[in-house]
Design brief:
50% helix; 2 domains; ATP binding; tRNA processing; alpha/beta; RNA-binding; Rossmann fold; tRNA dimethylallyltransferase; nucleotide-binding; 327 residues
RNA sequence: CCGGAGGUGGCAGAGUGGUUAAAUGCUCCAGACUGUAAAUCUGGCGGGGUAACCCUACGAAGGUUCGAUCCCUUCCCUCCGGA
């Protein structure tokens, strides 16, 4: 039976470092599950480079065609598209499924490394509406409407959908637009991607956590490291290649904050660092909220083995667990 | 020592004699999320209580007033300029 190892957790829990170690031991290849690492040129800000500690110990690094390689371990789903283009869950599932299939053909163990909860869920379990394509023309016109108008429109064309939405989503223009889009399509679904778990894979899921304070500290340090690694230059390079500030803000976190800095909305580097640290704390919290249901038996990431990265020998215990599971 | 500005909740920063536990932003906490997900959206945020409600608060101490964070006096502290 095909086996699949999944490692997930919030930002700064050391997913990639752990996955690289496991890949060396178990003859694996990594598949990143990250909505921003898919873009070419977003390297430092998205943390594609492994931690500096790892880099010093393992200097063998190269970039291949559509993959990066550390110490002989390939990492996929980096650099799959242009940063100016919008990439979505749908694209991700399609691309990642193909990559994973190829890894199997090579007789290797795919290790999915993810911080983007929705992508991970879609890849593993599928998403029933995923196949309904987006209608850019419709979206353009809907985007000119106010939230109020969007709500009325949806209530009119699909009262059932409106009923299903919760209060928070009803205030969310982005959700309203997609709901209208789904309601007004005449697209007949072929079902779309079904999710790997339904393909009969034997999966082991490992979730990484850390106490809040320690997580924040790791985030704060990482922001400073990234500044030292030239995150600012990276942003300027993106500007020079024609990326708009608007697009940078869409990309979020480092790129959004960096856009504010380049535009002078943030006055100095210290403020830049502070703002960024705060934003990433918030991001980590959102990830934790998403993954939290995981700890419940019927939760989103059921059958997950959770590890607190501050516990002694946690990496060794993970290794033992994988060794027992992997045939 | 003299002249000027100012001291507000974790921070930044409004404000005004009563409707101010005090705008707004940030941090922080909680949550939603089936095609932008590092995005987007919702709620909370002095303390206590399920609640009605109670307590402590706008540098300190007094005073004026029915009532002061807002007016007056003194003191303490900070910043700018001049000796």
């Amino acid at each position: 039976m095909k086996q699949l190892l999944v490692i997930f957790g919030s930002t700064s829990t050391g997913k990639t470092d752990l996955a690289l170690k496991l890949a060396e031991k178990f003859n694996g290849e990594l598949v990143a599950c990250d909505s921003r690492q898919v873009y070419v040129g977003l390297d430092i800000g998205t943390g594609k480079a492994p931690s500096s500690k790892f880099k010093i110990q393992n200097s063998k690094f190269k970039k291949g065609n559509k993959f990066w390689e550390f110490n002989g371990v390939k990492i996929w789903m980096y650099d799959v598209t242009d940063p100016g283009k919008q990439y979505t869950v749908y694209d991700y599932v399609k691309d990642a499924e193909r990559i994973i299939d190829e890894i199997f053909k090579r007789g290797k163990l795919p290790i999915i490394v993810g911080g983007t909860g929705l992508y991970l869920k879609a890849l593993l379990e599928g998403l029933s509406n995923l196949a309904i394509p987006m209608d850019q023309k419709l979206r353009n016109s809907l985007e000119t409407l106010s939230r109020d108008e969007l709500q009325k429109k949806l209530q009119k064309i699909s009262p059932q959908k409106w009923q299903q939405m919760n209060y928070s989503d009803r205030q969310n223009p982005r959700r309203l637009i997609r709901a209208v889009e789904i309601a007004s399509t005449n697209f007949t679904s072929d079902g779309g991607p079904k999710g790997l778990l339904r393909g009969g894979f034997k999966t082991l899921k490992i979730g990484l956590t850390a106490p809040r304070q320690i997580l924040y500290r790791r985030i704060d340090e990482r922001v400073i490291n990234r500044m030292n690694q030239g995150m600012l230059d990276e942003a300027e390079r993106l500007r020079k290649t024609g990326m708009t500030f608007k697009r940078m803000r869409q990309l979020g976190l480092e790129y959004g904050v960096l856009a504010d800095y380049l535009e002078g909305k943030i006055k100095n580097k210290n403020e830049l660092i502070r703002v960024l640290q705060g934003k990433i704390h918030g991001f980590a919290r959102r990830q934790i909220t998403w993954f939290k249901k995981a700890s419940l038996p019927a939760g989103r990431e059921k059958n997950t083995f959770w590890f607190d990265i501050t516990e002694k020998e946690f990496a060794g215990r993970v290794e033992n667990l994988v060794a027992k599971w992997y045939d």
